Amino acid sequence: MRKPVESVEEFKTRLEEISSTSGYTDPIMFGICRDDMGTMDTNAVLQSTFLVTNIRANLGSAKVFRDALEQEVVEGVEKLSNVVHVSDNELVCNIDIEFLENALATFNPYVEEAIGDQHLNVQVAKMLKTIHDDMAMNPQNMVPFGSGMVTYRIVFIFNDAPVETVEAGYLKLYALSEGKSKLRTLNLNGLFGLLTNCAWLEHGEPVELDMLRDRAMHLKALGRYPGITHVDKFPRMLQHVIPADNTRILDTSKVRMGAQLAAGTTVMPGASYINFNAGTLGAVMVEGRISSSAIVGADSDVGGGASILGVLSGTDGDPISVGERCLLGANSVCGVSLGDACIIDAGIAVLPGSKVNITLEEFNKIFEANLDNSHVGEIKKLVVKHGWKMIEIKAIELSGFNGLHYRLDNKTGAMIVKRSTREIVLNAELH
Amino acid sequence: MRKPVESVEEFKTRLEEISSTSGYTDPIMFGICRDDMGTMDTNAVLQSTFLVTNIRANLGSAKVFRDALEQEVVEGVEKLSNVVHVSDNELVCNIDIEFLENALATFNPYVEEAIGDQHLNVQVAKMLKTIHDDMAMNPQNMVPFGSGMVTYRIVFIFNDAPVETVEAGYLKLYALSEGKSKLRTLNLNGLFGLLTNCAWLEHGEPVELDMLRDRAMHLKALGRYPGITHVDKFPRMLQHVIPADNTRILDTSKVRMGAQLAAGTTVMPGASYINFNAGTLGAVMVEGRISSSAIVGADSDVGGGASILGVLSGTDGDPISVGERCLLGANSVCGVSLGDACIIDAGIAVLPGSKVNITLEEFNKIFEANLDNSHVGEIKKLVVKHGWKMIEIKAIELSGFNGLHYRLDNKTGAMIVKRSTREIVLNAELH
Amino acid sequence: MRKPVESVEEFKTRLEEISSTSGYTDPIMFGICRDDMGTMDTNAVLQSTFLVTNIRANLGSAKVFRDALEQEVVEGVEKLSNVVHVSDNELVCNIDIEFLENALATFNPYVEEAIGDQHLNVQVAKMLKTIHDDMAMNPQNMVPFGSGMVTYRIVFIFNDAPVETVEAGYLKLYALSEGKSKLRTLNLNGLFGLLTNCAWLEHGEPVELDMLRDRAMHLKALGRYPGITHVDKFPRMLQHVIPADNTRILDTSKVRMGAQLAAGTTVMPGASYINFNAGTLGAVMVEGRISSSAIVGADSDVGGGASILGVLSGTDGDPISVGERCLLGANSVCGVSLGDACIIDAGIAVLPGSKVNITLEEFNKIFEANLDNSHVGEIKKLVVKHGWKMIEIKAIELSGFNGLHYRLDNKTGAMIVKRSTREIVLNAELH
């Protein structure tokens, strides 16, 4: 066991020693998690629940935890024991009582004051040691039906590369759902393939489908067949992350783990859904679908049944962003990006190839609302050159413009675009 | 303690005495509730569960309960003790064993026969006394995780003014969801501001988000993090109110507390949602959204994904009513009121400003179906005056008309209105 | 009690004896179930949970079970005892320890090897006997709140006639949801009328609404009012049937018992719903509604909020099939059958009466993609005869055609049909 560090100065010296150890690298993310392991496949990690996450933060704790992992000598070379997975990108290790004691010895000057919001990583180590002492590190005694074995692990991510372990995948999903990493900035490749499709029980426990099959007859005969909330590779966000005080999610099933909801967002229970790596950047009313990779800006309203198409489901790899103060009407479809202050009327489907008409008068107003956008200037040149009184254009050409109002001309059935009645807030630094 | 009343005659005399007490006022609603109190903010009422509600009814019991509240002498003046909130509009008091004993003493002639459907207020008093005796009024022993303290209170509402307490707000929501008050007739102003945004657990227990934050690390480490059904200021209707035997709600999340479903209504689990102060007046098939303040008449069908816009989300303060025997097609949008026997075809968005075409022939049929409606006569005068063969009009002008069929002319894309094939049932008293 | 059968040969002989018994008929389906009985109406079967189902299979076990039912002599005639319902179409009997011992005596040569996937009916008999021995056939001791009495029954269906008992109805729903009977091939008439509208609790227990009413005040006072997942006549599919390993259902409420999901189907939680006797024939992405009786072929995509209309809700009795490799765009409505490789663009409602335009060039491509379909030939004759350059036709005339692409001409608002860009896979045997 490490010797207890006796002072803050000694702690700092200790950290420097660890930093300079051969092979030590600062992680970009790390944390301690509780893994629900499979019962049929006892190596399968069905779910990783992080007790605390560190996203580009708390590198001191990273050093302490890295140092607390035991070494053993294998073929004359000193190696980490308890390693589950190691590569240039990720390190996942099982933790045990020696790990906790080592970490607490180094954390010693902070152990007393680690309460409330202070020193969360120290709190985790303290708490797990208490749990261990209480039940000889045998927590599966108390695990509810179906959750099989439980393992505690520590996870370090060094590079934002394709996901190699379930634990690293969950840590990235946490980073998104906790709002600590921006949407669409993390590499989630490989995640789907690593996750196990499970039945999820009402307290958030994942159960392998084969385990259910194995026990179904017996459980049914006894009237003990469990309640299943969903069958998926992912849990729901509310199983792991607590939203802001003014955020409302009226049905837990509507927000997948890995979605990001800015404070003040409301998700209604009708036709809404927010997939992972998608979400909101401010207070948004969500009554429709925000597909994977789509982002909605502050003070916008995604109307009842409105669909924002995602990369995997209707658009061609260019993810859609909706700006601030936009309104997607009920049952509208948004298949191109919108700038700020746009409106799509109820029931209208704006797809990249949708042809829209704009009068010259409205086009000139739209031009004024998009002075920062070079593409609008190119269109303007064409308009002037040809002397068009009516601009006929595909919606994809208007991608990201501010102040558009997509409407139907009910007399002719044509889709038209006007300057919206919504105010554009100009970037004060530029204008 | 009050002396036991010995006979029905004495009971009546007693009520008259109470009525004539200085300051006594009959309430318009009252009832006894069980409050789930906050754990972080121990004064916050997270939820009020009414054991029985009295809506413009049972004034005898109101008198008994009012009388059973203890008085104390403060600065020489006799005052109610245990008052939580008092104003001209509302009175909320904690109740205790003295209150129950006082009430039961006055209710004495009815205590024996208070079973089944009889004397529900007497039953509540009996039952609470039994619970008290069983566990020395210490019910929090038995409360599941997260519910914090519990308090029993009595609530009187004297005037239908803006809501002043959580309890009064819940009593009004009960009045709506139990069908005892008509939709859109109660003053719900102030309600949103009074309610606490909570996480709701699977048995309907509200938990403060801060409390979850406080305990999340520990609960997660132990595998005891709770299942959360939703995060909202409101519970769902099914947590408080039992629907009629022939009413079906295929997903609890789809009906908010304060919605009203007439007997025979079916709510499907696809894209449907019924907000508070919205609902149905008869057997309605609901596969779409009935937004706050919208009402749908008997024998109508709100198709899959159809949206009826609400006051807060798409219309300008004039709440939408849909009549009887209407059909809102799949993914249609209804932004204006409809009379009886109307149809909006699948996929069509009827907004107040939508321009529609009506042939003279169809207009004349529509005129015949709306003889009670003076506005149709005004339009007819214009039609005759100008000799129009085709009437071009905004949908808002047709608001509330019977027998309309909103369609698309697929050849021209124009929205047209015909007389629907549905029968109008005329008011026998008028015709 | 039957004498134990000592060898496989004796077992075969025994089965032949049973077959030749007067009145013995092979069932088309049979199985042993656990019934949740009503508490208010103790004869009402609220739910039947089958421990194993036999759909046109395992007739040997059928013979053993039929034989194991006790006979008694009534008015000089030998009759089955324990009969709950008997007709030419169905036989439902209570089972007891004598039944189990009789069945196990006959199954004797297989009892040892009845584990894992082997001899499921023998396993059921063994298991129920163990349960009986453990608690003197008194399982209601262990039943959670609200489930009332429990009964074990055996059900035989001889003819696929209208449903006569709840048990037979459930057995047919299992046959559909387990994929053992094809969709739309079973007679489900009468089922709705037999089922009781219940409140369903979180572990899948049905509770009569009257029972809830009876106990609501007491349960609420104690903070023990149960969590209700839905109020319906049907349970959800996931309460009874375990989907394939690569099938995902992101919200349990979205799939009713009696729906059928082929392996690889994904059901998203936005606006999707799959009713009973409806579903998928291969891996399908479902983000919309598959109404009762509608079927979707492999590799198709039902976009967010898309509606496939059902027999009960928008079409006239001719159920809709969608072929393979089809795409129903977000918020589209599909009111006619589609062949393979069709597309309906986002937001378009294709109803039987929708008028569509097809250019001659596109029509000829569509003709080539439907050589197996005689109706396209009839249309072609008309086109040639009249020399049409533009074909104007109702969508219902194109029902079941391959390779259609329903689009909007945004300039004119007209609905048009082109040959889709999707490949048609020709039937190799025919071409």
Can you give keywords for this protein?
24% strand; UDP N-Acetylglucosamine Acyltransferase, domain 1; 431 residues; Alpha-Beta Plaits; eight-stranded mixed β-sheet
The outline of chain A comes out as elongated
Question: What would the CATH topology of the largest domain in chain A be?
Answer: Alpha-Beta Plaits
Q: Name the beta content range of chain A.
A: 15-25%
Largest interface: A-C, 58 and 60 residues
Strand order of the largest sheet of chain A: 11-12-15-18-21-23-27-28
CA-CA gap between termini of chain A: 62 Å
Task: Please give the number of β-strands of chain A.
Answer: 28
Helix content of chain A: 10-25%
